[in-house]
Amino acid sequence: MNLLAKLDIAYPIFQAPMAGVATPKLAAAVSNAGGLGALGVASSTNEEAKAMILAAQARTTRPINVNVFCHEPPLRQPQLEERWVQFLAPLFAAVGGNLPSRLNDYYPSFRTNNGLLQVLLQTRPQVVSFHFGLPTPTQLALLKGAGIFTLATATNAEEAQRIEAAGLDGIVAQGYEAGGHRGMFNPQAADEKLSTLALVKQLSSQSRLPLIAAGGIMNGAHIKAALEAGASAVQMGTAFVACPESAAGPAYRRHLAQPQARTSLTATISGRPARGLVNRYIEYTQRPEAPAIAPYPVAYDATKQLQRAAAKIGNTDFGAHWAGVNAAQARPLPARQLVALLVREWAAAQQGSK
Does the predicted model carry a pTM greater than 0.90? Predict the structure, then answer.
């Protein structure tokens, strides 16, 4: 049985989970249009995650994907964290914000979050996906026992092999072009920086699992290229950020719409490599004199405290506006219309190649 039949969806178009940006309304709209909508709950409390999932399920009877983060808990290094905070002091001063007295780890890993596991077992989304690593064997067994289809992100062949060996059902092959956080299991390891198509081609020759291509995919021609490279479906994030159903704010949408929009892969926002639209924060924190970055997700707390201080005076220079390399191609259409357009473009691309 192929992937679409297994998931009972019409089109090989998955919306990326995009924690903080994807909403129940967006996820449901994509699923109702024949794709696979998704919610990222890594930045939510367990209570918020449950409410989001139930809200999406109230809007659709179609499958949805719920994504969680499986990172290793950070090794706290007070002196390193203090140096990072002091480096950010000029930015806090510029917006009249108080320098953080300490940094917090607000994002527990799913691997240690039994409460979130219980939320998933209670709400039973049709798909659960993992980023930054794998769940524990016990967690995976419970989810699969509940009939949930499981996916995990791989950025290279070794990670894909670990996903397959663990017994998951599919692999999200994340290329270097992708917006948001790189799904690397070990952020300290060397990054091969494989493009989406190169990664899909490599994994398709090595893995028996269905592949979902992610990274830089914005239109029907991109979908065609990914499927021809060996993917069973594509995952699109930046393309859906511009939809009115997303939680992206006005500044995010304005920056995304700029023809000259540039992206950069940086660990300075959260402590893990992630691709976003270049802004004042990225430019400042990537200076050669910058100290070592506080680990994920501790560094994220510093960034978010700065963002909150800046927001009080209407300053949006420091937002974490995640986006892939083809950000300028995003189209501000309702999700249902965007899915329909992507399907038409895909069909036209297939017809044009005959």
Answer: yes
One CATH from 3.30.390.50, 3.40.50.300, 3.50.50.60, 3.20.20.70 for 3-71+107-248+327-352: 3.20.20.70
Least confident stretch, 32-41, 75-84, 255-264, 339-348 = 255-264
- Please give the order of strands across the beta sheet that includes 180-181: 180-181, 274-277, 263-266
Calpha distance 156→151 (Å, rounded): 15
- Report the distance separating Cα 192 and Cα 207, nearest Å: 18
The string of DSSP codes covering 79-120 is HHHHHHHHHTHHHHHHTTPPPPSS-------GGG-HHHHHHH
Extents of the domains making up the chain: 3-71+107-248+327-352
Report whether 110 contacts 69 (CB < 8 A): yes
137-145 and 114-123 helices cross at what angle (nearest 10)?
10
